[in-house]
Here is the input.
Amino acid sequence: MTRAIQVQGLRYRYPDGTQALDGIDFHLDSGESVALFGANGSGKTTFVLHLNGLLRGEGSIEICGLLLADDTLQDLRSKVGVVFQDSDEQLFMPTVLEDVAFGPLNLGLSPEDAMTRARTVLKRVGMAHALDRAPYHLSAGEKKRVAIAGVLAMDPEILVLDEPTTFLDPPARRDLVTLLRGLPQAKVLVTHDADLARALATRAVFFDQGRIAGEGEVIEIVQRFHWEYS
Amino acid sequence: MHIPDGFLTPPVWGTLDAISAAVVPWVARRAQRDTQDQRIPLLGVMGAFVFAAQMINFPVGPGTSGHLVGGTLLAVVLGPAAAALVMTAILLLQALIFQDGGVLALGANVFNMALLGVAAGYLPGRLWGRKPVTIFAGGAFSVMTSACLALSQLRISGVPMGGSVLWASLGLFLISALMEGAITVAAVRAIERLNPGWVAGGPQSSSSRTLPALAMATLALVVVGTLIASAAPDGIQRLTGQGGTASAWNIRMIDGIGGLVLIFALCFLGGKLIFRRRSA
Amino acid sequence: MHHLVIDRWSRGSSPLHARDPRAKLAVLLVFLVAVSTTPPRAQIAFVAYAALLIVAIRLARLPLRGLAGRAALVLPFSATFALLTLWSGDALRALALAEKSFLSGMAALLLVSSTPLTAWTAALEGWRAPRMLILVIQFVYRYLFVIAEQAQRMRWAALCRRGTQKGYFDFSAAAGLLGVLFARSWQRADGIYHAMLSRGFHGRFVPSPPAPFRATDAIFCSTCFAGCLAIRLLL
Here is the structure.
């Protein structure tokens, strides 16, 4: 069975010379959810930016059996949906509907089909009432749901979420967990939030200075690396 | 400096709307050639940045503070075409949403601030290299250009601005111009310290200076010329604003502006010809 | 904030909101030209224009006082020049100056308060405004408040630590603030570009087709044109 993600020997050096990733081996099975822990600057976000080719390093990355390369980039970007930490950077179109339709339009759907798909996905995330609203007016939780919708509209096999619970209040956080639990895609969760990881992920990987320092069950990793706030 | 509706007469706003409507698409094509669609979020964000930056007060003395206008800063960071396009977008939003400047007068405001204002801010650096002194000069020239053009357009439209009022306005604008220069230099220096790559490099020493020099001369000519010409129709003082009846001054006005546009066009085309011959 | 109120108003619903944005834009221009070319002695015309605007505002179900208040922001500027004109002995012209700028401001405000930004920018694009300009306008508008709010928070934070130092230090602090705001804005633009790429963006924005121009819109246009023309020529 082909794995959803297979990364081997990933290395990446920043333009200023720092070795951001120093030989990462990573895998993700279909339908599995993995949490990425690590200090700020340990390479977690740099790593996930490689998964859809925004950054290109040395080593091999296979998504659903397809090797990441210049000619497969566009295809793979529809398979890997990335939800960024800052929703304001993700929702850049004037209205919610237009923003969610952005992905499908780029995939080549007709404007009508793109809008239909956008409406369906917005209903799925519970934001069907906000079609014509400007993203600025939404709360952090609502923006996060619209951002997820924008990514789901591309029908991905894998979801990557970078610090999804930043700025969310407890109710919004609960809603997010419920939403993510109900989505069948394989998930990579970059997070400091141990509770989120425990709720959603079956496995955790710990990043330290560009390398993987540990891998195992979420609770075990949290305890081993003292990854709780108290 | 934004001229509202109701101040300019139809020949003035009509001509300037026509000029801007013709030049802005050309500027957009230039900007597109230099930046590609991927830079559109950057242009948009820079526009929002300039808007927001205008809220930050720079104290320049007891009870006086100024704020950034931004044309020169944009030109330094994005290049002249993209800067002109962003300024046009800003002016359009300011006119429609913020009631800062009129809609019919948009052509005039775009001409004064987004086109000639940005050009005036960019040219000193283009001619003499990117240094604090040229950035300062750029900022100051940019504001003075926009101000002089606006004042001329108002005068040609019959808004009474006798000698003392004119000199007082020019004096106030000069202070704003100097502030713009100082703020732009300070901002560029702060930005450079964070990342030198953000400030677009100066021109190569080998690139011809003829066209920019000619452009600079034409700009000065147009600005000073319109200011002087706006004083020429002395009949304006006696006008009661009866509009259609005194057709003579309509024609004289069109003549005046038309004449200057013609001079500008001739200089521009002449410069292009010389430039092409040089490189042939 | 001002533009947030207008944004909210523009998403309302009313017979005026439902009209095609191109029609509304055309009517605005005709109105502005009529007002601009009206001679100062035709004071009754200005009253008629105001009446026309009030009818339109009622049609749009918008608050008259709110709109008038915002349009009045142009008055301090016009008042200065109106006074100058008054000094030079032309009272009618001075009055006309104030009236024209106020009425024009109200009309423009009415357009943007009854038409969402995407709609009127699409109308401009239909009239062959350069696509790049339209996109830049939309992006500037989208990030206007985000960055302005950032600037506000940074200003407050700086004010909290201002103490009693003044003069040069404040100037350099403001410059530093501008620099950091610029840096964050630039990084934000990078983030947006990454988000665009991640959703399949491959170089060109895909435009959406314009809605068809309906008979109601044509009737609306011709009625307003006729009204403006009548006022301009008869009064």
